[in-house]
Each structure stands twice: as structure tokens, then as C-alpha cells.
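User: We ran a pulldown and think these components assemble together. Before we commit to crystallization trials, I'd like a predicted model of the whole complex to look at. Sequences follow.
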Amino acid sequence: MTTLEPSKPWEDLSSLLESGSRSGVKSFVEDLHAGELVRAVSRLDEEHVRLLLTLLDPEDAAGIVDQLPDQQAAASVETLEPEEAALIVQEMPSAEQADLLREIEEDEAQAILLAMDPSSADEVRRLSRYASDVAGGLMGTEFLSYSREASVESVIKDLRANSHRYSEYVVQYAYIIDKQKRLTGVLRLRDLLLSPPTRRVKELMLPKPVRVSDEASLDELRDLFDAHSYFGVPVTDSSDRLVGVLKREAVEEALAERSDNDYLKSQGIVHGEELRSMPLFTRSRRRLMWLSLNIGLNFLAASVIALYEETLTQVIALAVFLPIISDMSGCSGNQAVAVSMRELSLGVLRPQDIWRVWSKEVLVGFLNGVALGLLIGTAAWLWKGNPYLGLVVGGALALNTMVAVSLGGTIPLILRSLKMDPALASGPILTTVTDMFGFLLTLSAASFFLAKLAS
Amino acid sequence: MTTLEPSKPWEDLSSLLESGSRSGVKSFVEDLHAGELVRAVSRLDEEHVRLLLTLLDPEDAAGIVDQLPDQQAAASVETLEPEEAALIVQEMPSAEQADLLREIEEDEAQAILLAMDPSSADEVRRLSRYASDVAGGLMGTEFLSYSREASVESVIKDLRANSHRYSEYVVQYAYIIDKQKRLTGVLRLRDLLLSPPTRRVKELMLPKPVRVSDEASLDELRDLFDAHSYFGVPVTDSSDRLVGVLKREAVEEALAERSDNDYLKSQGIVHGEELRSMPLFTRSRRRLMWLSLNIGLNFLAASVIALYEETLTQVIALAVFLPIISDMSGCSGNQAVAVSMRELSLGVLRPQDIWRVWSKEVLVGFLNGVALGLLIGTAAWLWKGNPYLGLVVGGALALNTMVAVSLGGTIPLILRSLKMDPALASGPILTTVTDMFGFLLTLSAASFFLAKLAS
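Assistant: Here's a predicted model for the assembly, 910 residues in total across the polymer chains.
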């Protein structure tokens, strides 16, 4: 029945949705790879997305929403009535619930929370109060905890009784808490295998387990998981109460997302991810904000050229080289930016390392500046048969490459220590400064040698 | 004794290393965060790195090497004699061993393998044959496997006897294999808790477990782990023999690394990560390869300007606007590149979606082109009091923005379908084409309106 046309699965999905065949839709969706699913959903119109999520069981619908990128997931859920959405959201893992509701419009999110069962809603509200990049915002609340006095037998009984629910936890540890819910130990489930049923868990547990504060930053978490092979760590609040468990994969995912976002931002996509399924005007407006800032900076840089119109008129060949100098300095500088961004995200670099970075970059800038300067200088000389033109153009590019590489390496550190986002601002600052300086160098040198250049 | 000066830990580490205090070094290193450690090691000279790795137990040394970025890890191990290195490499997880030896120079790697115990060396050789981004190259070989006929009691006995070794496995499943080592089932360790000791594991196991081929690509693996909440999956070879276990975190890490590398490549850092601890000439040469290609493309683009020297001499104001048009078209186009790269890496986009992408991008390009064109056109008009200058410059930018955004969105798809790396080549191709087209548009329009423009 389901003729799986691999190139356009959304067309088949649409027909299935219109036919109202719940089982057909369910098995079709299960057969799709995650990427295919995201791709198909992004092609459905609002009404079909709504049909998809309401036709399926809430659990299956939650499985779909969970696979979509955050923004797309939020847009899908927003097509539903709050009551319908609440049923689906309740089936999602706790950490994902909070992420999703963060993306949904405030009023809509409140309405969904009101329609959820009160204890789940409270949990989501509690998680939503954390920033999305601290331990509290990344942890899940699906974990096993037992009191210190519990016996091996009672734990095994509980595991057996709730095995269906726990099967989604993917855990191998249980956490042992005291009466004030403070974390006192961790129990390896496999140790239950080897112990007499009447032992108390407090005798079996490993005391004083490693824990992280719910406000621990992503960088601290990366350091912790880099240094240890933990699969997950318990998260405690300021009173040392156990509030969640943070899995390694959540940290890895958040780090990957941060580096993705840094890449997007460095290219001028500034409001988190953009998907082509988003409305045209939203996409256009978001991109334009960055572009208008950039064009302003471009005017500033180009104003240097305007100051030298006289020189340019006499040595029109310079107009050919100005865009090259601007572009090449940008390239050289952005290489240094990329290395600094990478070293910052690895934690190898701290803002106070600025002089070390500069001393390393200036040498690369010198070598590459000389190489590029010789190349462009020779080209200019050969083209116009004037060695002075080569000297001016080559010298300017050489010097400006050194400047660009020095700036490119250090600007991200300066921005980080000013608590600004280096991914966002490094590029425009770099290119504006190097453009201005490059134009100034070229044109003032040309003015100096004007007698030799003007033919 | 260890006065922990937080800003320059490598100085204290160096003195400790020179004093030869094994326990001092060990506790100092353990107190450092992973990021601090990487930073400190990158400041040590070769001789001190060698001291650090030989002074500590191989197990502790392996813990350090494991935390370093791949290239730095390889450089550290290369400071050692092959016999010393072999002791350390043997203590690392299997997947990391192969990664490390891939980075080490061929002769040195062979010498280390010869010095390792033969069975470990064979395992590493087997793993090294896989590409680093397929299931076989990402999996580990630390897993539990038992024959179908094993009893619950014998499995528990084995777990108990090898608990120290297994404690590093972080597993909650054991894999059940037949006599030909083919994967036939998976056993949840917790089910051992609930079963009589004489049951056979073949009765307890879940039959026909999900598995992946050792040649499965990173994209396929991402789709699998996106669609299911598996913590890990067994990996089988072409004869369905169990060859390893792939953990979710290994896939997440590889995806994060790929997107990091894409970011670096898009900025011209093309040979994998560059760390500032690498030798100056290596860094300079690697960056220069990309820059020389770029300067060639820049010459090509600028040659368009050279064709219009006559027009430029008469309307010198155009020289101010050419770099702006070049830079702004690059910015607009790179935004579209970034969105396509992101959608490709999410799996939302397939190369055959090119027309859909184009139809979505051309509209954004139109809107933003009109906005930017009006901005620059008005500025040009006001500056020189000549509406025709505004018309030429604004019109050229508007049209070129549409071209740049259309190209930026589609070039990554075209490169992907040609099996070329879109992260690497999209930028230079985009900027060269948009520069040429932008210069051509501006200067040919200016030639057409020359009578109105020349004052």
C-alpha cells in the first residue's frame, strides 16, 4: 500500500494523512529515517502537520516531535490546540519538554502547561527556569533514587514493578538520598546482583559521589566529561538536593549545537538556526539585520577610498587591486579567527593568552604576508611594467596581512573577555579594520610614489 | 607544595617535572581541569612532554593522552620511544588507539604496533583499516559477549570475576553470539536479576537485535540514533559477525567534530585542526595553500575591472563602490551557504532538493537585494548628487544579491552531489563568481550611462 517513493516521501505522507489511515501513517513514519522524516515534515503544510500529530497516538507523535530540530518542533506543536499539544508534550523526556516550550510562543506555552497534568507541568516549569546551557537546563529528571535505608530486596522489587517505565531511563546507577533529598551515594545496579536481599543499600553504595551544581556552565561540564569517562553525573541544587541526572550525550549535543551556532553566526545567521521551512519574511528580516550592519561598516571602510579620489584618477590600476587587498586580508584574518574560535571552544585558550596568540600569529602573518605580497606585487609589475606599482601593492598587502592575522587571532579573545560573542562580532570588526587599513596603506603609499606611478 | 597558580599552571608543572616527583606530578595533573591540562601541555617543550608521559604510570599517562585533541596527542606520543609509547597506547580505549595511530607518522606508528602485545596490536590494525567516519572506525571493542548456551549463573560468575575490567565498559547489555560469532541476541543485564540461575541466556535474550554494518556512514548513524533512544548498538561485519559496539556518544562526538571541521574549512583551515602549539612553518604553509588558491581567484575576478579602466577613469566614484559590492554580495551569499550547510548536516536537505532551495532563496535574495540596493543607491545619489550613480550602483547590488543568495544556497548541494566537500569549496567559488558578476554589472551599467555619470 505504501509505495515508498524515496525522493518525495511527503507526497505519499500527505495522501495517507488525507485518507485518515492511522495505521498507514504510523507504519509509513516508522519506516522513514530521521533525516527523511524531518525533510518530509518540513514539506507539509500546517494543516497536514496538525493531522499527522493528532492522528497518531500521543506517544508516537511525541517520538516525531522529538526528532525535529527545536524550531521546527515548536512550529509543529503550535499548529495544535493546547490540550492536544499537552498530551504529546507529556510523552517527551523531561529535558526535551523544557527545550520545546522555550521555543514556543509564551502564551501558547502557558496554555499547554495549564493543560498538562499539574505535577508534570511543575517539573517543566522548574526545568524551564534554568538557562539552556547550564547543567540544570541540560539534565533529565528520569532517574532512580532510593532512600539510604532501602534493602536490596525492596530495590529489586521496585525495579521489577516499574520495569516498563524504567526501561526508558537507560540507567545503570541508582542514586541514594537522605531524608532531606540530599545526595549521599550512588549504587551500581549490577552490585545488586551480587548481594544478599536483606543488605541495606547504604552499605552497598559508593559514598560521596561526584556531582555537579545545577548552575554549572557548559564549559565546566565539558571539562568534567573530558577528564572522566562518566556516562552521566547527578546534578544537585544549592542545598545539595538531587534534582536531576546529566548524561554525557546531552553535554556532547549541547557542545555540537554551540559550535554549529558559532558557524552560523560567523556567516551572519544570528538568531539560532534558520530552516527553509520558516516564513519568507522572517528569514529575510533576520538576515537583513546583519547585512545592514555590515553595509554600514562597508561604507566606513570605503570612505577611506573616497579621500584619495585624486590619486586613484591618476593611477586607475589601483582600483583593480583594492578589492583584492580587501578580500585577501579578510581571508587571512578569518583563518586566524577560526583557529582562535576553535581553541576557545576546546578550552585550550583563555582570554589572558592574548599576547601568546599575538606572538604566534604575527609570525604566520609575516611569512604569509611576504608570500602573498610577492605574488601580487609581481603580478602588478608585470601587468603595467611599473615596478613601483608592484612595490606599492605588494608592500601594502604584505603589511596588511600581518595586521589582519594579528587582529584575527586576538579579536575573539578580546570579545570573550568583554563578555561579547566572538562568533558574531569577530568577522565584521576584522574586515572593517583591515579594509580601512589596507585601503589607507595602498592609497597613501601610491600618493607618496605618485610621480613614479602616474603614466 | 603544589602552589596552584591558575594562570600559568605549566610553569609549576615544568618545575615539578624537573624535580622528578612522580606523586607531585600525578596529583597536580589530577587537579587540573581538562581544558587547563590541554593548555598546560601545549606550553611544555618536547622534553617536558616526554618527562610527563614517562614519569607517570602508563595508565595515568594514557588518561592524559586521551584528553588531548588528536593532533596534540599524536605529537606528545611521538616524543617517546616506541616501547614507551606502546605501554601507554595499550591502556587507551580501542577506538581511541586507532584514532591516535592514524594521526601518528606511518613509521613511528608501525614501530609502536610492533612493541605492543600482538593481540592488542592486531585489534588496532583491524580498527585502523576502517575510515574514521564509518561505524567500524567509531566503534569500540570493549563489550560483553556470551554464547547462546551460557547459563545465567555462568554469566554472573564471569561478571563477578572480571568486574574490575568490565567496570570500564559502561555497559548494560551483553551480546549473545552463535558458534560462528554471528550476533543472535541481546541480553539486558538487569534481566539477570530476575531470573533463576540455571536459565540459558538464549531464553532471556531479545532476539534479532538492531545492528549496524561496520561500513555504515556517519549520516546513516546519525539518522539511526536520532530515530531511536539507543545508548549503543552492536556493529557487525559483512558476515554478520559481531565486531564491536558503537556508542551514541561516539556518533555525537564525530558529528560535532565534522561540524567543527566544516567551520574551520569554510574559513580556510583545510587540514583538520590547527593548534598554535604546532610548528610555525607547518601552520604558515597549510594556511598559505588556501590563500594562494584564493588570490588566483581574486585575480580572475579583478580582471573584469581591468577591462573597464576607461569607464572607471571617467567615473572614479565607482572605485569606492566596487569593494562594497564585492563584500556585501559575499556576505549575502555566505548566509545562504551557512543555511544549506546546516540543513545538509541535519539531513533535512538532499542534493536533489536544489530547485526547492533555489526557489526559497531567490525570494530572500530579491527582498534583501532591493533593501540593500536602495540603501547603497541612496547613499551614492546623495554623495555625488547624481541619481544615475545611485541607479547604477543600487541596481547592480540588488541584482547581484539575488544572484549571490541563489548561488550560495545551491552551490553546497551541487558540490555534495559531485562528491566534493561543500565546506571547503563553497566560499571561494561563491565569492569569485559573485565578484565577477558584480563588477561586470556595475561597470557595464556605468558604461551604458557614461554620458550621465561622467561629470
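The two ends of chain A are 79 Å apart (CA to CA). That may be worth checking against your pulldown data before setting up trials.

User: Thanks, that helps.
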